[in-house]
Write a structure and sequence with these properties.
Blueprint lengths: L6 H17 L9 E5 L5 E4 L13 E4 L5 E3 L8 H10 L5 E5 L2 H9 L9 H6 L5 E2 L7 H11 L4 E4 L3 E6 L2 H24 L7 H15 L3 H4 L46 H13 L33 H10 L5
Parallel strand pairs: 6-7
Antiparallel strand pairs: 1-2, 1-5, 2-3, 3-4, 5-8, 7-8
Helix pairs in contact: 2-5, 3-6
Length: 329
């Protein structure tokens, strides 16, 4: 689809969104680059070595689809091959934004994937965000990596480097960038608090299909909308029934031991330990009946002998108390 926004409007938009990227801490200093497709098929982009927080229209250049400069002062951005790969691979794309969002990049350095199904509104509007393997910045190798992944996604993370978001317009690309970094912040906060609970697979698939049909997406993703799992990765489709699945969808062993707890009078720890000591030392009376399982035991006062060990606590609980005291049951 050929863009129709005139060049003077696109110039204003690139300057505005570059300033927003800087103000929102999505890039610093000379980092990052933005571009938009012109109606004649050429590309309007930021030049190399310009501060995005102070960008003006004089910092923009026009290049052809081979990367050759047509108009403007200075050299095109050093990441121009990355931008061209997005336009060549995705005819539906009209704008590309490459930035260095700090929390999202931190996920790649920590080796933690953001290609997970956690937030419903993100799955609905964006899908998942994969990490592209590391390649040296500004190289054709990096552009080729981006080309391979941008077919299926509207937002990518570049390992140890930054992020790439695309859209039919600069606004759409910028919204996807904001969503990515906001998701990274929420996910990091959840991890700091203890764990990240992912969406159930059925709900994740339902949301993704709804989003593709309602809002659209990469053509390759739209082709999969009627498939069982849509375009979601395997990690979103497998579930072990726990809140913190591994990348394979299988929860780690919990190594929990279970104890049966019955209702009874509240007793302080000192009294309970003393009662357990007395019960362990008391001789067993052959044929003595045990109270019904689940019945509330009548706990003895400290120093008094109970009628039987089972009348104080369940056998398993007594054994654990004795082990804590350094003795065998």
């Amino acid at each position: 689809m050929r863009p129709t926004t005139p060049e003077h409007k696109l110039r204003e938009q690139i300057v505005r969104f570059a300033h927003l990227c800087y103000e929102r801490n999505l890039l610093v200093a000379m980092d990052g680059n933005l571009s938009a497709l012109l109606p004649d098929g050429s590309v309007l982009c930021t030049r190399a070595g310009c501060h995005k927080g102070f960008l003006t229209e004089d910092d923009l250049v026009v290049i052809d689809r081979r990367g050759e400069k047509l108009r403007g002062q200075g050299k095109p951005t050093s990441e121009m091959a990355l931008h061209l790969a997005c336009y060549d691979e995705r005819p539906d794309v009209g704008a590309v934004i490459h930035t260095h969002p700090p929390i999202s990049i931190a996920f790649t350095i920590a080796g933690v994937s953001m290609a997970r199904c956690v937030l419903p509104e993100v799955i609905l509007t964006l899908g998942t965000v994969p990490t592209v393997p590391y390649e040296t910045t500004g190289t054709q190798a990096l552009a080729d990596r981006v080309r391979d992944s941008i077919r299926d996604h509207d937002a990518l993370l570049l390992d140890r480097h930054g992020a790439v978001t695309v859209g039919g317009s600069l606004l759409e690309a910028f919204c996807r960038l904001e969503t990515m970094e906001h998701t990274a912040l929420i996910t990091k906060t959840a991890r700091d608090l203890g764990l990240v609970r992912e969406l159930p697979p059925d709900e994740a698939v339902s949301l993704r299909k709804m989003g593709l049909l309602r809002y659209g997406g990469p053509p390759a993703a739209l082709d999969k909308v009627q498939q069982e799992g849509a375009d979601l990765p395997e990690v979103c489709l497998g579930c072990s029934g726990c809140s913190n699945p591994s990348p394979a969808g299988v929860a780690p062993a919990a190594n929990l031991r279970m104890a049966r707890v019955g209702a009874g009078p509240i007793q302080d720890l000192r009294s309970a330990i003393e009662a357990a000591r007395v019960a362990a030392a008391a001789p067993t009376v052959p044929g003595a009946p045990h109270p019904p399982r689940g019945a509330a035991p009548a706990l003895a006062a400290p120093g008094s002998a109970p009628s039987s060990m089972a009348g104080i606590v369940e056998e398993a609980v007594v054994a654990e108390v004795l082990r804590a005291l350094g003795r065998d049951a």
